[in-house]
Amino acid sequence: MLMDKTKQKLSASYVTGAIPDSTRQRHAPLYGRLVSEEHLPATHRDVHHQQRSISPSSSSTDIRAMQARIPTHFRDPSLAPLRKLSVDLIKTYKHINEVYYAKKKRRAQQSQGDDSSHKKERKLYNDGYDDENHDYIIKAGEKFLDRYEIDSLIGKGSFGQVVKAFDHEEQCHVAIKIIKNKKPFLNQAQIEVKLLEMMNRADAENKYYIVKLKRHFMWRNHLCLVFELLSYNLYDLLRNTNFRGVSLNLTRKFAQQLCTALLFLSTPELSIIHCDLKPENILLCNPKRSAIKIVDFGSSCQLGQRIYQYIQSRFYRSPEVLLGIPYDLAIDMWSLGCILVEMHTGEPLFSGSNEIDQMNKIVEVLGMPPKHILDQAHKTRKFFDKLSDGSYVLKKVSNQTRKYKQPGSRKLHDILGVEMGGPGGRRHGEIGHTVADYLKFKDLIHRMLDFDPKTRITPYYALQHNFFKRTSDEGTNTAGNVASLSSVSTSPSTDQQIHDDRR
């Protein structure tokens, strides 16, 4: 309304000739604001000068002709801001609403586009050879070094991947461990290579149940370790039994080989702690034979060169690691004791869902740890409360949903089914599963699961146990390997020295 009146006044001025002095600045509406004459387009200034000569008697036709000469880019009065906020207010709000949702939709589309571009960027890790987890993108048929033809993926882990490949030079299948393209994983894998090379040199005849590292190389920023190709792991074997376990005879064959391997690792020139012994890291050499090998030394270290505090898979984690006591070679013997029970029963002996649950389940079977162990551990208060008389009790966990049995009340005797024909009575009447056989097995397990790592049985003395005197495994030549190993570097005096060092 205001702008319309202004226009009428200006039109009247043009008609009557009531134009201000030429030395003054004249104003006309342009895009909703007033501008001086010198800012008007030339054509508009010409109109002003012509209007000075128009008389009051000029016809309306002349006026329309004059108005037609006004540039088209001048705003329609109906678009004036005041009109938009008064007469056309509802239209204005509708327009704002439409603009808002249009912008919102456009932002959403841009966001989706950004996500898509990020996905494309992720595919370009390491020039497109890696995925977003820094794992090498496996392609069947690809050749590494124009020698190793990739067949298929065997497995994945935190370290990287393992693939089956064909070695065209040696005309055999191999397993290649491809380490992640990240510095920490590379550093740890380099330690693994060093330890494997040490073990392979010391086991030139390949008879102490340690996986053979053939060679290693770099491929597109990934360290690749080439191993002999083995078969199923012991967890796969358990799954094949529907988790009912293998016979005591087969358990004995596995135990003898694993004790021999630990004896080999404990020799003074090696002193290697595996740190992650479990069924998944023990592989059959042949699916139809009982010969096995230990794999995955990615967490391993030498005695006196411990790298990590958080080691061992929880089910097989030793009390000294749980309690934060400096550990040594004995932690692998604890893991072995847990593994042997699981192989025969089909179930983990201590299946804790966390460290506190793990300790409680250990105490259920073995009773309370010795006082001197708890006194020296710096994580004792995580699991136990100390009473005024200096003794310890298990800490009560708030919101505890599971009730534990009294310490030592879940007997290993019952878990193994010593007098019931094995676990669940499943081995009743089978050859090699007498009460006497089970008593020997139970005694060996108790010695392997000693709370005190200093008194826990060592590999050498484990191999002298009565449990192994019943029979020998000709298929794996275990007895011959033990005799050979003992004659070379593991005499009783040598083993006793290792045993004394842990004291």
TrEMBL record:
Enzyme class of the recorded protein, top EC level: transferase
Species name: Chironomus riparius
UniProt lineage: Eukaryota, Metazoa, Ecdysozoa, Arthropoda, Hexapoda
Binding site for ATP: 177
Record region (Disordered): 478-503
Biased composition (Low complexity): 484-493
Record EC number: 2.7.12.1
InterPro entries: Kinase-like_dom_sf, PKc_DYR1A/1B, Prot_kinase_dom, Protein_kinase_ATP_BS, Ser/Thr_kinase_AS, Ser_Thr_dual-spec_kinase
Name recorded for this polypeptide: dual-specificity kinase
Subcellular location field: Nucleus
Family the entry assigns: Belongs to the protein kinase superfamily. CMGC Ser/Thr protein kinase family. MNB/DYRK subfamily.
